[in-house]
Amino acid sequence: DVKVTQSSRYLVKRTGEKVFLECVQDMDHENMFWYRQDPGLGLRLIYFSYDVKMKEKGDIPEGYSVSREKKERFSLILESASTNQTSMYLCASSPRLAEGTDTQYFGPGTRLTVL
Amino acid sequence: AQSVTQLDSQVPVFEEAPVELRCNYSSSVSVYLFWYVQYPNQGLQLLLKYLSGSTLVKGINGFEAEFNKSQTSFHLRKPSVHISDTAEYFCAVSEIPTGNTPLVFGKGTRLSVIA
Asked: What pLDDT score was predicted for residue B59?
């Protein structure tokens, strides 16, 4: 079974703090993704990575950065947290295909509250 | 670029009644299609997927979906729902020639099963 784990289920931070969200997958997947989920807006892609040290911006990268130093680990960084970054953050991974994209496997999510 | 429209944001249904959750996509090329389910306070998990072959796809928990290329639809159905099916359901698409890009998700449909 594919397992994607996220470092925290719930996190409370103060405005201006630097926040690290960690994600680890155990299936040797090449691709990893960070989304945020807000009511009525569905899932919005923040960043993704196809390989170690590679990253691509998604639809809403502003205010975020990422790091992928090892294949199994993909970190999301909020450089200076703001209240509008209060959200559910979901990490996912998938194997690389020659064509198309196959199943993305999701972690349980981190509910971040910024006060 | 592809897009996904889930026509209903909320669907209330009585227990043991049938349900259909609608999904339409927009793409000029061949696609892979997915349905995910998210139970309260959890990450997303795969319900079923269409990659090729039979257009009627069966998934977990008694759900099935039919790929209709001419209608560009991938509606999800269950003949008799259970209270435990209460969750949010997401349709997603991947364009095959584009290869190895993140899935594009719809905004979700919240299914509420009423006893």
From this structure: 94
CB pairs under 8 A between A and B: 68
- Domain range list for chain A: 4-95
CB contact under 8 A, A97 and B44: no
Q: Average of pLDDT values for B59-74?
A: 94
Distance from CA of B9 to the nearest CA of A (A): 8
Reported as a single tens digit per residue, the pLDDT across A35-81 is 999 988 889 999 999 889 899 999 999 999 999 999 999 999 999 99
Q: Which of B29, B101, B44 is nearest to A90 (CA)?
A: B44
Strand, coil or helix: A111:
strand
CATH 2.60.40.10 fits A4-95, yes or no: yes
- CA-nearest residue to A4 within chain B is B43
- Sorted by where each starts, the structural domains of chain B and their CATH numbers stand as 3-114 (2.60.40.10)
d(CA A45, CA A61): 8
